[in-house]
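Board notes (copied after class):
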Amino acid sequence: MVGMGGIGKTQMALKLCEASALNYPLGIIWLRADTEDNLIIDLNKAAHMEAARPFISASIVETKASALSFCEALSKRDGFLIVFDNVDSWETIVEFYNVLTRDRTDNKGGRFLITTRLRDMNPVGSRDLKNIKIKYLATFSTTLGAELIFLRRGRPAESEEERREAEELSRRLGGLPLALDQAGAYLALPDTTIDEYLNEYEKSGTNGGANLRDERAPGHNPQTDNEKYLEHESVRRTYKIALDWLRLESADSVTLLNLCAFLAPDNIPEFLFTDDRNKEYFGKTYFKSVRHAAVRLSLLEHDATEKTLSMHRVVQDVARDLIGEKEESMWIERVVDIIRVASDDEWHENWWEKQLLIPHWDFCTRHSIRNNIFTLSSIWIMSNFSLMEAYLENVNDSKNIARIIMNKYKHEDIHSIELWNVLGMIFRINADLEEKEACFREAEACFREALRIMNKNQYDNNSLKISIYNNLAGILRNRPDVLKNGIVLKPEVIKESAELFNSAIEIARIEHGDDSPNLAAPYNNMAGLYRILKSYDESEKYFKKSIQISIEKNKNHIFDFNLASYFKNIGFLMKEINNINESEEYYGISLWIYLNIDSINPNNAKIANNLEDWIEIRKKSKFNINYIYEYHPYRVKIEDLINLIKKRYPNIKI
């Protein structure tokens, strides 16, 4: 297998296939691998190829199963080159690749070409892709590189002399695909010649590439030092030549590039730059021309369907190096402000809408920590990213970021109250995951600090006060030294917890009425407290109130962590009082919601434990009706839930 990444990858793959065609007499099978659906569609097209007909009937390649059967037939033939184009996730191709290589033991390789923007060339931990021997395609030959320059320029060589010049340029660029692509893009500009470009390339100097601080790019995993230097040096020069032209033609395009250099490299939302609340506002119409200038020179890549931009990691390294350390902090602060405006104070209530921003929160967090930037915007992003990491069970990252913030931020204002509350939530989630008393104590300390600052300064923010009361009460109730094996060891702590829950409920009722969305969490927590005290009727009543309020609040976006948790909690209550049928209903809904939250890790503890409980309860339940909860707005079908589980976990028997 040959892996290929970067801008212009499909064009490069086409040239490579063209050069290799003689080695594959039965033809080239080109498969779009960005989604499983496209992969199956293209396998169906491949089944209609004349060369494929002796192996399998074209008419049956309609489903994943039949596509895999076709792959099994292809695996017995060596005359094809199979291209998996634009792989966005290794999981998309793993089953198909394994079937295609099932009967191959020679491990010769060379039958597969993969194009991808993924930088992890250690697919799925190398455990799931079998018989794989990866070779990263780093350079093109001088001749093939020259062909790519002409292809990218948009017109063929006009003379033998120009062809020789292109080959010389290819040689000086080291045959690096990214540098070739940028050089070809520049040569597509009017009144440019290869000879002049060669002169500009020489003038751009040789220093700088060796000093690039690649470690500043979070998550960067460069190749060997020699390869890294070669790639950075060539791209530094091609980027600088393009940048010098842009400064004269479109200064705002340079601004856009500098901003993108400090964002996550992929899926940069265009709305970041067209939101009129931002200081970096370009305006939707003007932004198109700003974007076009950078894309035209292959400095950015544009996805018109998703309305996103991408910037190659090497280009980001080069851009940051040219900006320099003195101005770096200024650009990071500008990026942080953009992301903060685009984010939402209630993101954890509708976080599915903010998924596109999470990688950029990550980049902003790590750049801010590395450059000691702790503004209000950066603190907000860091704390909320740490909270998201806690939700996704990345415990160590989550706690480390939270502790850095605790040591850096010393103000006592309304922002600090919100911050301490969020930090407490981070430690609370990690406490639930790790069940370590230290995390419970850290969470409690954060919530008490938020409450102390609020009382000291007499801030009148009832929504925030409700949240703090509720969070502090919950952590007290769940502390390991307070309750053990269903026995209350510290009744005074349970009493304080109940008083805090009641205070939160009372404030919410007075402020917003009995149906306030702010009551969902306190009701759920009070229900949990009643369950501990074995007041089961009261517990059930409060759980149902919590669910009703949460459903009304989330009726347009039912896939919510909190709602899934509320259903699981009442399911646990029903299991405890031996109401098995209803327990299955509630657990099933909770599981269905979790499984429909696309960004959640399907193997995390929330789903694993919920799935285990639901299967155990289902074995005992005699529940057989079509819908598993009467007032659930989407009326979840048991069949749908089972099909969803089978799709995600094909080896599990239900």
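Comment from the instructor: The CA atoms of residues 150 and 156 lie 5 Å apart. DSSP finds 27 helices and ten strands in the chain.
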